[in-house]
């Protein structure tokens, strides 16, 4: 099946969607979830700042969805998907800093395939779920393990600003039931799995969520993380790669107080080499 890579970016004072072909972006007019059309304009990656590839209203996530993630803790698979919600304010894109908030001592990366919803989804059966998927992207479900263990809810543990990492592109046409998912810390592989190993497959997850919450175009679902994870530290560089999507790359830093009298309406530019690392062309 033909695949298409969509990116969301900032250039020339505006935010746009585009189709990525190599290092060339073909600009689109409008929203990709509502029938965007090519403008005929193009630009290179070096002339754009990549953003999170969509702007979701709802950010759903499934916990403990790989046996390899729960085996060493003697946890049995749940009878239904274990859901939690991340605030939309937690979402950042590739090359943006993951910020460790004050008091966070045990913050982990989690490599995940993330499903992007393409149309209004309510009470769908698993057999029809694929018709509601726009595409997939890569995600890092950043998690503070001590807060996750000790807090009543996972609001802090998984919902802090910058804890919902997405990108670098949304890809259509991939077999989301059998993609590799990998994390690397400073170039060293830390997690490796395949979406075929999900305890609850994507279609089941979408159907289950839609029984309780209406999902809208652009909403996303983090589907779970394989294997084991370790703490991140300031200065680390985390890379998440989902087969066919590209590399989601983020440095880790301490959070700092917001500065006043600073215009923060425009994303800060990133180097062409950094963008190229995130959207490397896969070898065949």
What can be said about this structure in brief?
By secondary structure, the protein is mostly beta strands. It has helices at residues 67-70, 145-150, 155-159, 202-210, 272-278; strands spanning 4-11, 14-21, 24-29, 37-44, 49-50, 59-63, 82-86, 91-92, 98-100, 107-108, 111-117, 133-141, 143-144, 164-172, 180-185, 188-194, 220-222, 237-242, 246-254. The chain has two domains: 1-51, SH3 type barrels (Roll); 52-256, Fumarylacetoacetate hydrolase, domain 2, CATH 3.90.850.
CATH topology of the largest domain: Fumarylacetoacetate hydrolase, domain 2
The main sheet comes to: 12 strands, mixed
- Total strands: the figure is 19
SS summary, helix count: 5
Kindly provide the radius of gyration, computed on alpha-carbon positions and rounded to a whole number of angstroms.
18 Å
- Note the run of SSEs as H and E: EEEEEEHEEEEEEEHHEEEHEEEH
Label the CATH architecture of the largest domain: Alpha-Beta Complex
Low-confidence stretches: none
Q: How is the quaternary structure best described?
A: single chain
What class do helices, strands and sheet pairing give?
A: mainly beta
* Residues in β-strands, percent: 35-45%
CATH superfamily of the largest domain: Fumarylacetoacetase-like, C-terminal domain
On the 0 to 100 scale, the average pLDDT is 92
CATH secondary-structure class of the largest domain: Alpha Beta
């Amino acid at each position: 099946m033909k695949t298409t890579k969509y990116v969301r970016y900032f250039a020339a004072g505006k935010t746009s969607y585009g189709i990525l072909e190599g290092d060339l972006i073909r600009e689109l007019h409008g929203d990709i979830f509502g029938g965007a059309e090519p403008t005929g304009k193009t630009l290179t990656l070096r002339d754009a700042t990549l953003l999170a590839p969509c702007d979701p209203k709802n950010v759903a996530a499934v916990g403990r969805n790989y046996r390899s993630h729960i085996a060493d803790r003697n946890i049995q698979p749940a009878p239904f998907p274990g859901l939690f919600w991340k605030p939309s304010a937690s979402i950042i894109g590739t090359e943006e800093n993951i910020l460790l908030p004050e008091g966070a001592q045990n913050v982990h990366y989690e490599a995940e395939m993330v499903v992007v919803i393409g149309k209004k989804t309510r009470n769908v059966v698993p057999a029809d779920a694929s018709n509601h998927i726009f595409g997939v992207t890569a995600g890092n479900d950043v998690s503070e393990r001590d807060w996750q263990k000790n807090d009543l809810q996972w609001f802090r543990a998984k919902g802090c600003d910058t804890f919902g990492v997405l990108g670098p592109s949304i890809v259509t046409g991939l077999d989301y039931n059998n993609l590799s998912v990998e994390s690397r810390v400073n170039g060293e592989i830390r997690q490796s799995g395949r979406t075929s190993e999900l305890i609850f497959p994507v279609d089941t997850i979408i159907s289950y969520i839609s029984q309780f919450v209406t999902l809208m175009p652009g909403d996303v679902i983090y589907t779970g993380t394989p294997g084991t994870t370790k703490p991140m530290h300031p200065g680390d560089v985390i890379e998440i790669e989902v087969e066919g999507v590209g590399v989601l790359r983020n440095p880790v830093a301490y959070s700092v107080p917001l500065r006043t009298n600073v215009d923060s309406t425009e994303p800060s530019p990133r180097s062409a080499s950094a963008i190229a690392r995130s959207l490397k062309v896969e070898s065949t």
